[in-house]
From TrEMBL:
InterPro entries found in the cross-reference section: Kinase-like_dom_sf, LRK10/LRL21-25-like, Prot_kinase_dom, Protein_kinase_ATP_BS, Ser-Thr/Tyr_kinase_cat_dom
Pfam family, one: PK_Tyr_Ser-Thr
PROSITE patterns linked: PROTEIN_KINASE_ATP, PROTEIN_KINASE_DOM
Record: residues binding ATP: K89
Residue stretches spanning the membrane: 6-23
Name of the featured protein: Pr5-like receptor kinase
Top-level taxonomic group: Eukaryota
Parts forming coiled coils: none
One Gene Ontology molecular-function label: protein serine/threonine kinase activity
Alphabetically ordered keywords of this record: ATP-binding, Glycoprotein, Kinase, Membrane, Nucleotide-binding, Receptor, Serine/threonine-protein kinase, Signal, Transferase, Transmembrane, Transmembrane helix
Species name: Thalictrum thalictroides (Rue-anemone)
PANTHER family: RUST RESISTANCE KINASE LR10-RELATED
Ranges for domain Protein kinase: 60-284
Length: 284
């Protein structure tokens, strides 16, 4: 009886030790250790992985800030040994977690499209994370869209150039959507950009408190003057009209009504009379 009890306690203790050992093996490492572990599993990436000290060097200690986005600051840099000029996005420590970064890295490194900025490398060094892209010397498209009413010199590009850029962006987005990126939200943002490109103005004019979509829609269906900027040829006028119609489809409140990016590309590349008139957009 006593022997059976001692044996029972012994078995219990051994089971507890085994359980503890298993638990310590499966215990999750800290976030950045998880990221490191993931990266070690994907050694083919080692060629474009940089240490934080290298990132500091390539950006000349973050001397030239190009801009700021939702995920951190972007700095101008150059790859080691007189390599390519790059844009280095330093991800802010507070935004996102290790999983987001791994997912981002996994999808970015698989993407390659002539209309998308080339991804060149990354840095994961302790808690520090950065993404490295080819440098775009002309900066953001924003500089080239808007018509400045009271300025003599305009930085706005010609309508046909903007139209070709819009098709290029749509091609790039369509490619990304095939990879499973959230589609309809992207389509909305794209539509907003398309309207701003065609109209040469912000979608919401703070001075006159005018929301462009219903304003332009009403003019369009009433066949009134669309007050477009810098239009010199009938081809430009028809193209602007097409961009506006497609833009109005994309910004529909109901995501189910918005077209897929593939349809956007088709409408933009096709003739104006194949683009139906969308429902009237809601007033904000
Ligand atoms: N490859 C690049 N070449 C040159 N400048 C760049 C490059 N990438 C980003 N920039 C500059 O840095 C700014 C911030 O870029 P970032 O990609 O972080 O954010 P975003 O695209 O503006 O917004 P979000 O973070 O919401 O995507 C851009 O507006 C641009 O001026």
């Amino acid at each position: 009886m006593v022997l059976a009890m001692v044996l029972g306690v012994l078995i219990f203790v051994v089971e507890m030790i085994a359980l503890l050992c298993r638990w310590s093996r499966t215990k999750k490492p800290k976030k950045f250790e998880q990221v490191e572990a993931f990266l070690e599993l994907h050694e083919e990436r080692a060629t474009n992985r940089y240490k934080y000290s290298e990132v500091k060097k390539m950006t000349n200690f973050f001397k030239d800030k190009l801009g700021e986005g939702g995920y951190g600051s972007v700095f101008k840099g150059q790859l080691p040994n007189g390599g390519a000029m790059v844009a280095v996005k330093i991800l802010s420590e507070t935004k996102g977690n290790g999983d987001d970064f791994i997912n981002e890295l996994a999808s970015i490194s698989k993407t390659f499209h002539r209309k998308l900025i080339t991804y060149l490398g990354y840095c994961v060094d302790r808690g520090r994370r950065a993404l490295i892209y080819e440098f775009m010397p002309n900066g953001s498209l924003e500089k080239y869209i808007y018509y400045k009413v009271s300025a003599k010199a305009q930085s706005r590009l010609g309508l046909m150039t903007l139209y070709n850029i819009a098709i290029g962006i749509a091609d790039g987005l369509q490619y990304l959507h095939e990879g499973g990126v959230s589609r309809k939200a992207d389509v909305y943002s794209y539509g907003k950009m398309l309207l701003e490109m065609a109209g040469g103005r912000k979608i919401f004019d703070v001075q006159t408190e005018t929301y462009y979509p219903p304003w332009i829609y009403d003019k369009l269906v009433a066949n009134e003057n669309l007050e477009l900027y810098g239009i010199t040829t009938p081809e430009e006028e028809l193209t602007a009209l097409k961009m506006i119609l497609v833009g109005l489809w994309c910004i529909q409140t109901d995501p189910a009504v918005r077209p897929y990016m593939s349809e956007v590309v088709q409408m933009l590349k096709g003739s104006l009379d194949t683009v139906p008139i969308p429902p009237r957009p809601s007033s904000i």
